[in-house]
Amino acid sequence: MAKTGVNSGSRGKKGLKRKAAAEEPQEAAVAEDGATESGVQPPKAAAFPPGFSISEIKNKQRRHLMFTRWKQQQRKEKLAIKKKLKKEREALGDKAPPKPVPKTIDNQRVYDETVVDPNDEEVAYDEATDEFASYFNRQTSPKILITTSDRPHGRTVRLCEQLSTVIPNSHVYYRRGLALKKIIPQCISRDFTDLIVINEDRKTPNGLILSHLPNGPTAHFKMSSVRLRKEIKRRGKDPTEHIPEIILNNFTTRLGHSVGRMFASLFPHNPQFIGRQVATFHNQRDYIFFRFHRYIFKSEKKVGIQELGPRFTLKLRSLQKGTFDSKYGEYEWVHKPREMDTSRRKFHL
Amino acid sequence: MAAAGARWNHVWVGTETGILKGVNLQRKQAANFTAAGQPRREEAVSALCWGAGGETQILVGCADRTVRYFSTEEGRFQGQKHCPGGEGTFRGLAQVDGTLITCVESGIVRVWRDNDKEASSDPLLELSVGPGVCRMRQDPAHPHLIATGGKENALKVWDLQGSEEPVFRAKNVRNDWLDLRVPIWDQDIQFLPESQKLVTCTGYHQVRVYDPASPQRRPVLEATYGEYPLTAMTLTPGANSVIVGNTHGQLAEIDLRQGRLLGCLKGLAGSVRGLQCHPSKPLLASCGLDRVLRVHRIRNPRGLEHKVYLKSQLNCLLLSGRDNWEDEPQEPQEPKKAPLEDTETDELWASLEAAAKRKLPDLERTQGALQTRRRKKQRPGSTSP
């Protein structure tokens, strides 16, 4: 026992390999070598008692060394397997089985029963007669009011200005400490269709309230990763007055449909393709990425894009039926982290 | 198929698009029923109540001020009655002794003769309750007593056979610690069984118990829950507690003896619009604006039992109070056939072997057919259009 203790001590740095099956004669041989030689020790297959794990070594340096050795060995084995598979694939040529698709959180998404089927009549009727019906029937055209929380700082003000260049027919007004509930009837009387309030905290914009008027739903988003125009690298010149096209990606569930329609109703119907500008709302894993680009078709299949305009990420916090009334309004959907965020593979939009 | 099995549906839900949905939790199927064959938003269901004669008829109050009669036996709408007068949607529907009681938001309560074939006759009785009514509820023990309450409309109990004045008129609580008047917003009312007491839940997140038998007109007990308006309430079977839901989708069970919170139920994501407990089993059905019907178990253990996604926003629900929940009764032909053949075969086995052998192929064939039929039924079905 003591001998093995001494030997494992002296074996310390150099001669150790990763754990293998216990081999008594080899251990004895190594022990003798270890006892006689002082410095360099020949690398021999280490013999460990079964049930031994690297984490049981109390000495941190030695433990770390054993672990790095083990890791290197694992990596070597993995590379060897890959190489072998690649050779087999090349050897088989056309008859090779298709490559297995790697698992990602997006393709492991939990089945959501609220995903809208395009042929569903009930949902189609619901959407045809909801609060956005007047926009989608081309009876109203959007007119947006953009404002902020009270006393905004420079970043928020600049974001509002840039947003108003991105969204056609929008007006920025300074919020002079007015209550939203008082602003909304005034907006309705002046024929505004949507109200955007950018909330600010500690000199950075962090929230967005989007309220459809006259009696439409109000969505409350968390805003993050805000990049103003001058912070965007390799950007194009400022956007022109042309009406942009819109891309809404990945809004599959019923809730996603409602939010997607809200975004669509911000922009006028008739995009001017001459302007070659496009606003994208891309939903992935419940985060909505907003980008504004100018595109040019170099050939039939090749497109070049320049990012203009501000860029930000939104996450839906709540969708309230009716105009802004956070205290007494009825909520269609509220994000409850402790109940809804239990699975990494479940998304709601 | 859906119409035939309509009587076995456990929950009936009314939606904002005018569709009445019948949900069978055993078979996990939901069926849509519309009066006109197409959903119409003008027919948005605002009130549901059971009709006369057990649970065979449902009265559906729609947004266009008509009350439609739906038969669960036949699975289709039978007739309708237009109930004009006042403004706003129906806030309460009840029926007693062949008459129909309706209450609208502007406070007009009318009692109509219940002959649904006639277009619209004059009301038998009309009461004006006060504007801004949020709920009208009928006392299940005394069907001629109704209670009404609403926004800035205090709780009043009316006797339809008595005088024009309310039997009980609740008084507002004292001014609060800033000496400001406490606003009133009664969102839902329930009568407590075996006493004259009433419970209300308010939009200012209070739950109050009133006792008309006591000399005080102010609430006997007041409890608060949460920070959001309470929109729906139901009594639990047996126990002295109520379950309330608010606009954030939080459900809570509140004890009425002490006024404290017993526990919460998780799952809802939107405002709760309808709540109902089963009269004997510890089951609670809830529906709301998040388009999902949930059935929770209230006791041992508290949790979610069923969840059904119904594609429209749900406004109100009716839970069937029958006891044979689990035992899905077979369709009418089968119970008659099976025992008949069993008795026949028993007798035959006892008496003649040859005759029994002859009977066997028939029995096998019919038994096989029965089994396939049973198998077909038990397969989980999808929602029918």
TrEMBL record, chain A:
SMART domains: Brix (SM00879). InterPro entries: Brix (IPR007109), IMP4/RPF1 (IPR044281). It holds the Pfam family Brix. GO terms for molecular function: rRNA primary transcript binding. Its main location: nucleus. Residues 142-325 form the Brix domain. It comes from the Eukaryota. This is Ribosome production factor 1. It comes from Neovison vison.
UniProtKB/TrEMBL annotation, chain B:
GO terms for cellular component: nuclear exosome (RNase complex); nucleolus; nucleoplasm; preribosome, large subunit precursor. It comes from the Eukaryota. InterPro entries: WD40/YVTN_repeat-like_dom_sf, WD40_repeat_dom_sf, WD40_rpt, WDR74/Nsa1. CDD domains: WDR74 (cd22857). GO terms for biological process: blastocyst formation; ribosomal large subunit biogenesis; rRNA processing. The keyword Phosphoprotein applies. Residues 323-385 are annotated as: Disordered. This is WD repeat-containing protein 74. Keywords: Methylation, Nucleus, Phosphoprotein, Repeat, WD repeat. Isoform 1 interacts (through WDR repeats) with NVL; the interaction is independent of RNA or pre-60S ribosome particles. Isoform 2 does not interact with NVL. Interacts with MTREX; the interaction dissociation in a late stage of rRNA synthesis is required for appropriate maturation of pre-60S particles and depends on the ATPase activity of NVL. Residues 355-365 have a biased composition (Basic and acidic residues). It is found in: Nucleus, Nucleolus. Its main location: nucleus. The keyword Nucleotidyltransferase does not apply.
